[in-house]
Amino acid sequence: MAVTTTPIRLQEAFAEAGVTGRLHAVDIDTGAEVGVGADQPVVTASVHKLCVLVTLHEQAAAGRLDLTEQVECPPGDRTSGPTGLSAMLDPVRMSLRDAAYLMMAVSDNTAAELLLARVGLDAVNATTARLGLGRTRAVHSFREMFASMREDAGPGGAQALTDPYVIARLRALDPARTNHSTPRDMTRLLGAVWRDEACTPEHGLAMRRVLGLQVWPHRLAAGFPFDDVHVAGKTGSLPTVRNEVGVVEYPDGGRYAVAVFTRAARTAATLPSADSVIGTAARMAVEALRAP
């Protein structure tokens, strides 16, 4: 598949799945790239946890914190979410690096909040600025984001999030008013992590390891169902929003950073076609980059 024709094919795949898609894919070693709306602002949702992870390791490398440092998590002070600490009922004590594992592997919102409290939102923005991600910014914590959604949804609560009129007024779905980035910024960040430019090699290895432990196989990884192809990534989800960024590594040494951000026309929480097109689009882009 020629790189020059790939954007058209990608747009067709997104349209068939019922989503608006933005994508950027880049060969980490050669710089060859494929994009569709690569510089358009997008809602990051939980993809922004990657920025928190990089900031955590940057501070550890600088000696400002110890990744084995223990943090307390009482049951009455947890951010909403269906996984990890957010779903647990009893007091928990764990290290910063174990909280980072939960934040990345199962997208634990409470673990992310613990780490944000330790490193600070300003530090996250300083890290992304240092790495040249000029269109990436954390506007608020994940707890604050969910609070804005409850406020915007009104008395209808979670059930109101199937109403298109409610969806249209959610600040959390407006890149201008929530945590945001672009597909190109996210592949630039992934490339920096994989080339050990974001941090020291020791910390780069630790970040790559935890990204490879994500448990969700239904988006980016679904496009590469091969035993010898390794996919490491981070998803992000909000009403109508399904995202994933990650790196696809082939046994011949090829490695490709891919960022896919989608918005669905339908408000249903379960849309298999919207999930699977992330893997489909990523595979199309990577195959174009690998074509002779």
From TrEMBL:
The keyword Hydrolase applies. GO terms for molecular function: hydrolase activity. Residues 23-262 form the Beta-lactamase class A catalytic domain. Keywords: Hydrolase. The keyword Hydrolase applies. Pfam families: Beta-lactamase2 (PF13354). This is Serine hydrolase. It comes from Streptomyces flavofungini.
